[in-house]
Amino acid sequence: MTPVDAAELRAAFPVLEQVAYLNAGSDGPVSRQAIAAATTELEHQRDAGRATAHFEHRRELCDTQRCHYAGLLGAAPENVALTTSTSEGIAIALAGLPLAPGDEILCAEGEHPGLLGSLQAARDLRGVSVRFVALSRIADSLGPNTRAVTCAHVAWRTGETAPVEALAALADSGMPVLYDGAQAVGAIPVDVEELGCAIYAGSGQKWLCGPDGTGMLYVASAWLERLEVTRRGYASFSEPSAGIDAPLCDDARRYDTPSLSAEASAFAIAAYELLESFGWDAVHARGDELASELTLRLAERGHAVASRGNTTLVSWHSDEPAAVKTRLADAGIVVRDLPGTDLLRASVGAWNDGHDIDRLLRAVG
């Protein structure tokens, strides 16, 4: 594995010329290449209009975007739907699961609102119960009415990782396991076949540095016919012109978001291909290395770092996280405070360098 040329990768992101950008867990930095690709698409639409060729081109872009996402997940393209976010993918999946009143979904504590919102809907609209346990115990906490298990692959608050081996064994027994992969896809290696999960939802705008409004949903082959398609539109059908009895696509395209713009897909593709050009193994390794360095140096300075895995998120406790975040932003250092907690979170990517970490450490003391 050839290490990432840090200077070359860093030069692709203009924001890093001035700012220590440590917030890819919210939105990744935007590259020159991605802006150029989106601009080209918009200019073409301005000059050529939007007719048949435009829509054919959009489909081609979506096919490329789908293949890129599938490759990063270790999946076949026919098992991957394009969505607008991790949250939308989770909503599609939980709405489509065959659940009945009294059934239980087991969930890890401290999950993101994007997952909690769909669980709330399942509870309020379908009579499903939701039970929460610690992430580390989730594979060992099934009850008699548990019909699905869901959790983050990487916890959004701390960077803790799910017990994937235990969950894979659980999935082998037939229990559907749904992962929120928002803080994993692009940040750490992901292989849905090894995970054994039924569902995996991920983001395009975070660690893939794509545009807002992009994401992915993996549906295992065994679940393509079992996961109901509760929202249907033009993109859902293999023959949209067939009217009310139009057949659904026979693959994960049946779950596609109704519409993605050409400029968004072009942006997402260019962002992905930039990172891919440096090698995903090297990108993952560099992010992990820098995050580990930040963890060690924060602890050396007496900061209480939250328990985490080998991920790209580093969170530490603060008496005034919101105020510290604002102070850091004023100094050109972008991190996130996590509402409802006393945590500050730095999201460390391969595009960062030691200078970014030094700036953060000097500012927090």
Strand order of the largest sheet: 2-8-7-6-5-3-4
Low-confidence spans: none
CATH class category of the largest domain: Alpha Beta
Any idea what the shape is? globular
CATH topology of the largest domain: Aspartate Aminotransferase, domain 2
Q: In terms of structural class, how would the helical and strand content be classed?
A: alpha/beta
Question: How would you state the average pLDDT, rounded?
Answer: 97
Largest sheet: 7 strands, mixed
Structure, explained:
This protein has helices at 6-11, 32-48, 52-73, 86-96, 113-126, 164-172, 192-195, 262-277, 280-300, 321-330, 354-364; strands at residues 20-21, 80-83, 104-108, 129-133, 146-152, 177-180, 199-203, 215-219, 313-317, 333-334, 336-337, 343-347. It is an alpha/beta fold and 365 residues long. Strands 2-8-7-6-5-3-4 form a seven-stranded mixed beta sheet, sandwiched between helices. The relative contact order is 0.18.
